[in-house]
Amino acid sequence: MFELLGVPPQALFGQLLLGLINGSFYAILSLGLAVIFGLLNIINFSHGAQYMMGAFVGWMLLNYAGVGYWAALILAPLLVGATGFIIERFLISRLYKLDHLYGLLLTFGLALIIQGIFRNQYGSSGLPYSIPVELSGGQNLGFMYLPNYRAWVVVASLTVCLATWLVIEKTRLGSYLRAATENPTLVGAFGVNVPRLITLTYGFGVALAAFAGVLAAPIYSVNPNMGADLIIVVFAVVVIGGMGSILGAILTGFGLGVVEGLTKVFYPEAAATVIFIIMIIVLLIKPQGLFGRAP
Amino acid sequence: MTIRQLAAAAIISASAVISASAQTPVKIGVLTDMSGTYSDLAGPGSVWSANKAVADFNATSKAVKAEVIFADHQNKGDIASGIARRWYDTENVNVVVDLVTSSTALAVNEIAKEKNKVALVSGAASSDITGSKCNANTLHWTYDTYALANGTGTAVVKTGGNTWFFITADYAFGQALERDTSAVVTANGGKVLGSVKHPFPAQDFSSFLLQAQSSGAKIIGLANAGADTTNAIKQASEFGIVQNGQNLAGLLVFISDVNALGLKTAQGLIFTEAWYWDLNDGNRAFAKEFAAANNGKHPTMVHAGVYSSVIHYLKAVEALNSAADGAATVAKMKATPTEDKLFGKGSVRADGRKIHDMYLFEVKKPEESKAPWDYYKLRATIPAAQAWRPLEQSACPLVKKS
Predict the structure, then answer these.
(1) Which A residues, 255 through 284, put their C-beta within 8 Å of a C-beta on chain B?
(2) Distance of CA B61 to the CA centre of its chain
(3) ipTM score for this prediction
(4) pTM of the full predicted structure?
(5) Chain A residues inside the 8 Å CB shell of B300
(6) What is the DSSP string of B226-257?
(7) CB-based contact A288:A295 (threshold 8 Å)
(8) What gap in Å lies between CA B156 and CA B154, rounded to an integer?
(9) Residue of chain B minimizing CA distance to A8
(10) ω into residue A132 within 30 of 0, thus cis?
(11) Are the CB atoms for B80 and B73 separated by under 8 Å?
(12) Does B199 touch chain A (CB under 8 A)?
């Protein structure tokens, strides 16, 4: 068998595909962050906690109310998104006149509180959540065994990312959003309720995180720290893609998933570091990020 | 300071000395993972167990006045060192117990030696704690990588699992576990085909599992712990590893991990542990009290080890009438046979290794489990004489070579 860079090509294809799957999670999460930052100028540090809440709400719906995976995929984002409305309305909205730093501190503190509550209640070792029967099993692709659920993750994530991008770039609602980012006062003068628009956007970003959480529940351990471990990487993804750039967040999310996947083959010890190395290089060469506009 | 204040200070310190002569004061610091991935298998449960040990000891003896404090070492060696230094130097802590990760245990045992205090390790695993890094101020209580490797490795190789691939957490513990298990596998005639080191902690193991799959090894050894192990097992079942003829060997599995996986995913796993709550009446009584105080969770072997080590420490302090000299206290602990309600009779060796039986368990099938936390079947008892690294193989300088 011929080898590519010392690795059989079949193994390489497998790893590329796995990277793409992990990239799906980065893409949905960084998309939510980018939407929130783009409109609210808030660096939402509680995004990881909200992702975790999505997974936990999915688990609670199943265990307390008997609601299965498919319904949870819709319900959990709605419920967690609703908590986002409340947080924005009563807490974040008071900080718009202040420096970015205050929003960061507020959301970071919220994340710690949310994680603490869940840890107290459910412990840190996690809860079991099974893959829905319709998606159990897998396909033998020749070069690897692809579980059906992982294929679904890529499809679901691509659909959601594409739909979000279309709404923001191609619809009237999206144009209001983009206009409000540029000049909220002027948009308000045209009769658009800008504060409500902002609340909705934050709720939507949070719902995206919760959606990713439900997607993750059957394959990752559902535990209170699951978001904290992931969110730092996702922030690096957003910085590399360019703060606030929607398309940048999506493409970088998938791209970095692949880069990380390849690192796991060639030098697995560095798999946790490689994204940050790329972040440093990008910041040095193009400080506004790969897809960001220069200020 | 005025003369009046000086006098007051003198009186206060004098009265402290008087009360001390009646009851030896001891401050026990539980240094553990209070918030991270290991906080269920140690964490608040370890603090409870230390307090329980003090309460049980006080019920039989009034010689020691023990106080328990705790802190979160966040599984980082530097944070653990900082807290241990502060405790030993300025807060009069005599003994640090638990220490959940090998990196924190190996950091704190150095400090215990430097300050002539005591460290009693329960949560950490590296066999280096009583090997090349051993010292006269540290005891390793519950289990170690040698005993895990020896128990699980031998059993698996003997039942035909003679080719191995390791998925290893990339820090002191994982490396020690992989090293010790590889030695056992090779010694029993098996072969190690390769290994991959993953960052700690990791979420996604699919890439590592795929590498393990293509290695063709019969056994995939998981040299990691906590959420890393549960994530790896969960994803291995997703990728059809077991259906395709490979088997998983969890080298360090706690009952909290089995609870997190659920019996449906965890059934059939074989691993070595030092203690299980349902082995005898004494353990069951302890577990019942533990569960009532800890949200229904049942104790792990780490919790039982914290209890047992604190009991033995307090006995030594009582015998010496002092906790001031760490090395002397540890020497006394080594000289006295151990006995408590959770581990029964045992001993502490010259290298600091606590000696007791180990057990090989298998996780029950869902239909075999009759109650919550009824998870294990006992496959074999590994007698104390065979469970641990023989002293003559020890790299510990405290062991006199004949």
Answers:
(1) 261, 264-265, 268-269, 271-273
(2) 27
(3) 0.84
(4) 0.85
(5) none
(6) THHHHHHHHHHHHTTTTTTT-EEEESS--HHH
(7) yes
(8) 6
(9) B214
(10) no
(11) yes
(12) yes
